[in-house]
Amino acid sequence: MFDASSQRATIARRPATTRLRLGLLAAASTVLVAACATTTSPTGRTQVVGAMSQEQLQQMGIQAFEQAKKTGKISTNSNQTRYVRCVVDSLTRQLPAAQQAGWEVALFVDESPNAFALPGRKIGVNTGIFKVALNQDQLATVVAHEIGHVIAHHHDERVTRQVGAQAGLGIVGAIVGSAYGQNAASATSQFGGAAVQAGLLLPNNRTQESEADVVGQQLMARAGYDPHQAVDLWQHMMSAGGNQPPEWLSTHPSPGTRIQELERRADGLTPTYQQARASGSTPQCG
């Protein structure tokens, strides 16, 4: 049986160096939190960011993109590449002026229906996306969603959260190790890591995915793409997806939940779409 009073007495008898170590660890935790900042996402959600500078994040994105191009196969299909580039350009023209230029696009020969965007204005699209994105509006749904992650500072938020989680686990492990020994510290790191992954990081990622849907659907409507096509795209995704993990243990909302939300927002965005078309935003990409 665990005797709490005995354990407290044991800790109290620790030497001064151990107590100093615990104090320094607590101070390090405080400094880590203070180094970060809060901001507001495009949907009004409070975000904790700032573990890295914007320049560092952009450099990380550029390096990751270059690595992806080295390890992946770049498509030589000029028509498909031009098609993707056209959709990207039509969407980025709707961003604030300072964010419009300099987006690099790569089309990868990969059968998985996927795409990504990175800090540093990098966009990658797999050729497998054409199996589910059957027209330009559906392709715009995918690309706008990925751009949404970038302009909503999701990479900054995720890096900050992961840095904080890893530092927090190290601090907790060190404290436990000082009090109860190395075996206890190892157990804390092992089970704590699983807890952070399942209970801290994944829920945040689901929130980001849902937010990127909101931001992306707004962006595509402003660019003159039909927001209702986002619903069709995810219906195709769901048909092609096969078995899905439980929503509570997934980095994405369930397809059914996602489709319901996209459908609900599409009607509200129809006036934006119609106004964009009337103002001359009529993409003719393919």
TrEMBL record:
Q: Where is the signal peptide?
A: 1-34
GO terms of biological process kind: proteolysis involved in protein catabolic process
Q: Bound how, and how many: what does the cofactor note say?
A: Binds 1 zinc ion per subunit.
Cofactor(s) the record lists: Zn(2+)
Q: Which residues form the Peptidase M48 domain?
A: 79-265
- GO CC, one annotated term: membrane
Return the InterPro entries for the record: Mito/Outer_Membr_Metalloprot (IPR051156), Peptidase_M48 (IPR001915)
Keyword Signal annotated: yes
Q: What are the UniProt keywords, alphabetically?
A: Hydrolase, Metal-binding, Metalloprotease, Protease, Signal, Zinc
One Pfam entry for this protein is Peptidase_M48
One MF term in GO for this entry? metalloendopeptidase activity
Could you tell me where the Polar residues compositional bias lies? 271-286
- Region: Disordered; residue ranges are 263-286
Top-level taxon of the source organism: Bacteria
- Belongs to which family? Belongs to the peptidase M48 family.
What is the protein name stated in its UniProt record?
M48 family metallopeptidase
